Amino acid sequence: MPATKDRTRPSRTAARPFALWREVLTAYAAPALTAGTAGVVTGQADLTVAACTSIAGTSAAVAFLIGTWLQHGGQPRGWTTTLPRVVLTVLLVIATAGLAAALGWFAAEWLLARTPVHAAPWLQRLRIDLPVSAVLATTIVTLRWRSTIAKLRP
Q1: I want to staple 39 with a disulfide (CB 3.0 to 4.6 A). Which of 47, 120, 125, 131 is the partner?
Q2: What is the rounded distance in angstroms from the CA atom of residue 27 to the CA atom of residue 55?
C-alpha cells in the first residue's frame, strides 16, 4: 500500500514567520561558532576572541537594527515590499556596510589617538570585522524578512 502525504499538517518546508529574536540569536551564534572554530583550528587566538565579540556582536546588533527597521511596527514600509528582493537587499547592504566600515575605521583611529589604549591587533580587526559582519547579517535578515512577507501577501 503506497504511503500518502498527510495534507492536514503544514509543510515542514513552509517558511516560519519572521521572529526578530530568532534572527538576532542566529546572527550571533552562527558567526561566533564558525569564526571561533576557524580561530581554534588555525591557532589564531585573536580570531577566536573576535568571533564572540566584534564579529558576532556586530552581526547580532545589525540583525536587530535591520529587522526592527524592516518590521516598522508591524506595518512594513511600502517601498520595502514593492522593490525587487535583490534590489532591496543590495540597497540595505550598501548602507549598512558603509556605516559599519566608517564606524570600524573611526573606532580604530579614534581609540588609538585619544585614549590610552595601546595598538592592539583587535583594533585593526574592527576595520574588516564590522563591515563584513554587517553585510552578512543584513543580507540574511533582509532575505528572510522578504520571504516571510511574500508568503503573507495575497
Answers
A1: 47
A2: 10
